[in-house]
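Fold these two proteins, one after the other.
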Amino acid sequence: MDLKARRSAISVLITRMPLLKKPRQTTQSKSLSTTEEIVVGTLTGVASTAVAHPLDTAKTRLQLGIVGKGGLGKALTNIIKKEGVRGLYRGLAAPVASAGVSCGLTFFAKSLWVKTLRSRLGYTAGQQNNCTLLGAAGALTGTSIAPVVLPTDLVKIRLQAARCKASTSALEFARGLAKREGLRAFTAGGTAGILQLASIWGVLFGGYEFLTRKITAAAGVPTGQRPGVATTIIAGSTVGVVSWSVAMPWDIIKTRMQMDPRRNPSFFGMLRGIIKSEGVAGFYRGFSAVAVRGVVSNASFFLFYEGFRGVLEEAKA
């Protein structure tokens, strides 16, 4: 066998080795339709919210200062001692129902805002979305979903902080709240809530895409492929902490206004009051719980998102 024939035989052998084969076209990421984005978003929201809810309960109580001194571990321990494990899931129905609806709406709104911004900025059909564009679309998305998210968030916070029976349902509690304080009670903390949602979703959508592109490019993954599990966890965890670092001041104000709107009726009044009495550190009360929750919640959020998206893409292949 001459040298040319040997080289040809070796080349064929190498290309047949599983670890060295070029990725098949079916592994490439395909864009989802708006309806598919809504389905994926809804399933992702329900699953990730259920996973992170115990940490969210601890976060709320730390922010309101009703679990005494200490960090996340002590807050979780106190809740379990006094109310049992079931206490960690107080108010779960409201955020799960909200997450299913709001995450579906979130991905629907994101799809619309991305299309709008692409059109306004003169993007061509095959041009990849810039991370800044995705961040802007995320911020606009957060603002758009506020009317759905904030009322259910208020019910969740009141239930998490309440001393009522653990069996009290979110719907039952909401009805009682409407009777006692009127429908206007559900709008408490609106300004802070909008700023919080815009900050979170802007960082999540823009930051996640930025990090996954950097990590996959450094790993030599072909352009267009969706990130693997490790990349998703790293990127999701990182943007989770960063997004809450940005949104934490607004979340503190929102939580206190939603918990006691009569005592805390003004956004700017709350802003000045916290700075005067607690300093900048007051905006980061319970941050350890928020950071841990951000890691768990957003890592699981993007894992579920990539997982559900992958299932749909394979079904379309």
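Now the second one:
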Amino acid sequence: MESENQPLLGESSSGRKKKTAFCIIIFLVGVGALSAAIITSYFLYFKYVIGLKVLALNCWGMPAKVGSEDKELRMQAIGKFIQKKDYDVYLLSELWMRPDHETIRQLVPEGYYMTEVGDFALSTCDGRALPSFCSGLAIVSRFPFIEKEFLEYSYHGSIWNPDGEYWARKGAGRARVEPHPGFIVDLLVTHTCAVGPTYTNAYYREHQVKELVGWVDQSNADFVILGGDFNTDPKDKETSYHNLKEAMISSMEEFFLDIKEWLCPRRATYGNPKNTYSYMYAPVLYDYIWHRSNRWNMIWTNFFDVPFLRTLKGLSDSTSTNGTKEVSFSDHEAVTSSLFLWKSIL
């Protein structure tokens, strides 16, 4: 009976060896599969991901008689800033006048491309004496344009209001580029109806944004990037910001996860305390960069900033030791975003 209860030592040792060998094989297969997955993912990431740096700026290009200050000085400064080639794409709004457009175009660096006035405007656009029937939109790009198109809003403000919105022809300028073989990107720049002195113009702006979202939805590009002056703050009691957020992702909101980090005076794009022209007004967030991807592609924000761009202005009656002072590029602050674009192989 005792011999019947004794363990079979030979068989047990052999079984353990087989189990050990099996575990080692499984482990090695797992390590190999994991290594292959890491190498493949690494290869696919760097092969199918590109970076794109974007800046959007309202240039405050209204004629001096309509209210802007230091326009010629600022346009020169904007053009020279673009010459530095710090960004791949510049989305410009309120570049109303043809001479100012030409000033910047002359300064565009070699290897960059700029849309013409007529690319994003009606044939009736003046732009010499007044901005009547113009859009004021332009795009400067490191990449050549495949397509260019102006999409005019159907709503233009009231003819009875003194803000001149009715006489402008605002809309969206669309330029298609291919920053890397197979990466098709639609760049859109826009400028919506401005807030009036005693009224919001929300009715017109809401309708414009609905049209804009419709144009974005119609894009068959791999990626869509939209920037400009939207004249609406996230806190406003209108649907504009909400409708944009339903269709696209705000780079600022994506990067600064805490609302206190982006919805604050130091990141206001109009009425910013550091702006030399609009510091006296209530700080609001009007300028944005939005993005979205189509199909299985992905796009995300790696970095976002509200830079304080300035240039030097000479003083006729010197109140400083060197006879100059710093002035902002515009009454708006620029917004910048560093984006990563991932193209699916599917």
